[in-house]
Amino acid sequence: MINEISCGEAIWGQGLYLRKRLLFNAFAEIAAKSHRVFAAADFSVIGLLNSNKTLWIMAEEGADCFDGICEIMREHDVRGFVAEPDFGEILAERTGFVHDETSLAFAAEQPLLPAPKTDGFMRPARQSDTAAITKILAAYYAEIHNLEITPDLPDCDFFVWNNKEIAAIGASSCSQRGIARINYVYTLPGHRRRGYAAALISALCANARSSNQIPALYVNSKNQPAAALYRALGFLPQGMLHIYNKRV
């Protein structure tokens, strides 16, 4: 039986989030925005439904609440879901959803290795950077996610790597549970292979650590250069999440 409950009960109930927090750091980010939360009575399964009709599902090994999750998905016209592979594959078979992407989760519980020195410096984004960051984000979505959109700026703290002009961007958002999610790291094509991304990530992680936050991030499994960079800097894999979408 799956019921809708409060964010506080769901996320911190029974320590499920804390046991999986480095894999599911997005849960705190989603919950902070007061999206709808569903959970089994014993908290063996928790689902958070965001405004895009995507259901993030966190489940204990061996949890069997598929009928309840399927009912929630039908009732709320869920368009996609995110889950660990074992749970996700069973739910996909029952719902007909298609596995589209795999995200690898990384976290840096220990200080990162020093990034190679490079030109330029990181600074917080300014209001005057909004147009430039929006344009760079559009390039990010086009290249990484194959989406042609004009994005709104997400609700997180943006930083830029500046070398006479903005060469790369990145963002960080901190949770109340000690996780800083690193996101939207992107270097413009004309500025690549100069170490800007590595320097930017190192600086973002140093900022997170100064606030006693553990840096964590996701990367598409197809983006092997990015995954290799994170490993080289000292990030350690935390698992993977499969992303499923409704069959058109």
Architecture overview:
The chain is globular and about 55 Å long. A twelve-stranded mixed beta sheet has the order 1-2-3-4-5-12-6-11-10-9-8-7, sandwiched between helices. It folds into two domains: 95 residues; 132 residues, 3-Layer(aba) Sandwich (Aminopeptidase). It starts with a strand and ends with a strand. The protein is α+β, with helices and mostly antiparallel strands. Helix content is 32%, strand content 32%. Strand 2 and strand 3 form a beta hairpin.
List keywords for this structure.
single chain, 2 domains, 248 residues, alpha+beta, 32% helix, Aminopeptidase, twelve-stranded mixed sheet, 8 helices
Could you provide a short overview of the structure?
The protein has 248 residues and is α+β, with helices and mostly antiparallel strands. It has 2 domains: 2-96; 107-238, Aminopeptidase (3-Layer(aba) Sandwich), CATH 3.40.630. The chain has 8 helices and 12 strands.
Structural class: alpha+beta
Range of strand content: 25-35%
Domain count, please report it: 2
Shape field? globular
State the separation between the terminal residues, measured CA to CA.
Answer: 29 Å
